Amino acid sequence: MFTSTEIADDLLNAESFGEEEYPLMEDFYTIQGEGAHTGKAAYFIRTAGCDVNCWWCDVKESWDEDAHPRVAVEEIVRRARESGAPMAVITGGEPLLHDLDPLTYRLREAGLSVHIETSGSSPLSGYLDWITLSPKRFKEPVEEIFPYVDELKVVVLRQKDIEWAEKNADKCPDDTTLLLQPEWDTPSSMELIVDYVKKNPKWGISLQTHKFLGVR
């Protein structure tokens, strides 16, 4: 688990953590559809705002922070807790544009395991049990995130994306889970990934199973 500051120091400010607000595009209880935790029940918290803006992004409506309401930490955590989900997944947009200490502290206090899915374009913050780094060539991750990466998940459209994946894998801990994920609207990427994983079995394949299941 990574903590952006010493826990003892943050405990002094914990009373104010519930008062913080985040621009929230959506939050909902579903099944994690991608990566190492595929198939597990999860409460998704999608913050608004993004500084990467991938052209193939399927949640472009999350990019504009000002287009979405600001919601208090206490309200977000209440909904997550009442859902009965064992874990919360903070995603975006780009969630690390925001200081995640208040939200993640309260989520863990409520008994949820806290995961994040990030491009790593901004400094790491929060009390996190699982960090999924999905780096984008449009804006490279900050170097400080790499020692904490539990899962590296790279979206692949063409060969240069695999080269990008290897570049980032070299910076991750030896026990990081390495996954290549085909871009949904680029079928040719699947054959490329399958061939590569067969030759380089340190990598696995992540599929967007929630799209096959027809869930959010």
Explain the overall architecture.
With 216 residues, the protein is α/β, with parallel strands linked by helices. The protein has a single domain (7-213), classed as TIM Barrel (Alpha-Beta Barrel). Helix content is 26%, strand content 24%. The chain contains 7 helices and 9 strands. The chain has helices at 7-11, 14-17, 73-83, 101-109, 159-169, 188-199, 209-213; strands at residues 21-31, 41-47, 70-72, 87-91, 113-118, 130-133, 151-156, 177-182, 203-205. A 9-stranded mixed beta sheet has the order 3-1-2-4-5-6-7-8-9. β7, α5 and β8 (177-182) form a beta-alpha-beta unit.
Brief sketch in words of this structure:
The chain is an alpha/beta fold. It has seven helices and nine strands, in the order ααβββαβαβββαβαβα. A nine-stranded mixed β-sheet has the order 3-1-2-4-5-6-7-8-9.
Record keyword descriptors for this entry.
216 residues, alpha/beta, nine-stranded mixed beta sheet, 7 helices, 26% helix
Label the structural class.
alpha/beta
Rounded to an integer in angstroms, the radius of gyration calculated over CA atoms is 17 Å
Task: Catalogue the unreliable spans.
Answer: 2-9
Annotated CATH homologous superfamily: Aldolase class I
CATH topology: TIM Barrel
Q: Encode the helix/strand succession as letters.
A: HHEEEHEHEEEHEHEH
Helical fraction: 25-40%
Count the E strands. 9
The proportion of residues in beta strands is 15-25%
Main sheet summary: 9 strands, mixed
- Gross geometry: globular
Distance between the termini: 27 Å
The number of distinct helices, counting runs of at least 4 residues, comes to 7
Average of pLDDT: 89
User: In order across it, which strands form the biggest sheet?
Assistant: 3-1-2-4-5-6-7-8-9
Overall structural domain count: 1
From the 3D coordinates, which CATH architecture would you assign? Alpha-Beta Barrel
CATH class: Alpha Beta
